[in-house]
Amino acid sequence: MTAAYFPIKLVVGLGNPGAEYTATRHNAGFWWVDQLARDAGTSLRHDAKFHGLVGRARLAGHEVWLLQPQTFMNRSGLAVVALAQFYRILPREILVVHDELDLPPGQIKLKQGGGNGGHNGLKDIQAHLSTPDFWRLRIGIGHPGDRAMVAGYVLKPPRKEEQALIDDTLLRAHAVLPLMLAGELGGAMQKLHTDEASRRPHKAAPTA
């Protein structure tokens, strides 16, 4: 899909509400939105009509809404569609930040549209928006190796070394935030993925 040049007006971090989930892998999206709110000096406040914690932030010279649905992961779409419809925000102006099992810790990808990969939060957002064509910032958390172990895995905190890698990816995402807010999603994607590729270890050439 061709990258559309529309500024991001709503950043949605996915996670589960409650102190018991704060440090778990499934809340990686919350972590980034928390950081954006701190950077902007904005408080996220509960708004019943939007089913979540909401804040208006000024970042990199742009105004953007920040949202953390408080409906639990599998009902995230309720909050997203409520705020998007109220402020007339288009799906292509929405960035959803979420944990990604298919990427290892230390990797992060930006994309528009596509499938939901079995992620319950994405699945519900697609259903409520009636389109998959919103942007996704996919934060790698790794996979436990067995599909039956996924539910328990995402609801546990990352290991110390994994957390360090995830924190690094969030910093890299922050570096391309000005491009995303300006609508230069193609440039943000290229920079993020190029920077990531340069960090991966290169295999040594085989010796004769």
TrEMBL record:
Keywords: Cytoplasm, Hydrolase, RNA-binding, tRNA-binding
Domain of life of the native organism: Bacteria
Pfam families: Pept_tRNA_hydro (PF01195)
Molecular function terms from GO: peptidyl-tRNA hydrolase activity
Class of this enzyme: hydrolase
InterPro entries assigned: Pept_tRNA_hydro, Pept_tRNA_hydro_CS, Pept_tRNA_hydro_sf
The EC number(s) this enzyme carries: 3.1.1.29
Entry binding sites for tRNA: 21, 72, 74, 120
Keyword Cytoplasm carried by entry: yes
Record's subcellular location: Cytoplasm
Cross-referenced CDD domains: PTH
SUPFAM superfamilies (UniProt xref): Peptidyl-tRNA hydrolase-like
Site, Discriminates between blocked and unblocked aminoacyl-tRNA: residue positions: 16
Active-site residues from the entry: 26 (proton acceptor)
Residues with site note (Stabilizes the basic form of H active site to accept a proton): 99
Record's catalysed reaction(s): an N-acyl-L-alpha-aminoacyl-tRNA + H2O = an N-acyl-L-amino acid + a tRNA + H(+)
Stored HAMAP family: Pept_tRNA_hydro_bact
NCBIfam families: pth
Role, per record: Catalyzes the release of premature peptidyl moieties from peptidyl-tRNA molecules trapped in stalled 50S ribosomal subunits, and thus maintains levels of free tRNAs and 50S ribosomes. Hydrolyzes ribosome-free peptidyl-tRNAs (with 1 or more amino acids incorporated), which drop off the ribosome during protein synthesis, or as a result of ribosome stalling.
Subunit structure: Monomer.
Name of the protein in question: Peptidyl-tRNA hydrolase
Organism in which the protein naturally occurs: Chitiniphilus purpureus
The gene coding this protein: pth
